[in-house]
Design brief:
The chain contains one helix and four strands, in the order E-E-E-E-H. By secondary structure, the protein is of the alpha+beta class. The protein has one domain. A four-stranded antiparallel β-sheet has the order 1-2-3-4, with no helix packed on it. The longest helix has 20 residues. The radius of gyration is 14 Å and the shape is flat. The mean pLDDT is about 85.
Length: about 70
């Protein structure tokens, strides 16, 4: 997830592809805070599991690549 101008974006969402040209094209993540329960929920944030270090590093690489693609676009 990347936060830019107080808006969260899911960098690992399966609907994202390398052709995304702007950060705003990525799915927006919404934060819901439940003060009474003391919990925070994130809506529209994809969940991924990694069984190995290689899988975790691959997810990190994919998110970083998507961040860079969105960052350098006009």
């Amino acid at each position: 997830m990347e936060i830019y101008n107080e808006i969260g974006y899911d960098l690992l969402d399966s609907r994202h592809n390398s052709m995304t040209s702007k950060l705003e094209d990525l799915p927006r993540v919404t934060l819901f805070e439940h003060t009474e329960a003391g919990t925070v929920h994130l809506k529209n944030l994809s969940i991924h599991s990694a069984s190995t270090t290689d899988e975790a590093l691959n997810l990190l690489f994919m998110g970083d690549t998507n961040r860079i693609i969105a960052e350098v676009s006009p």
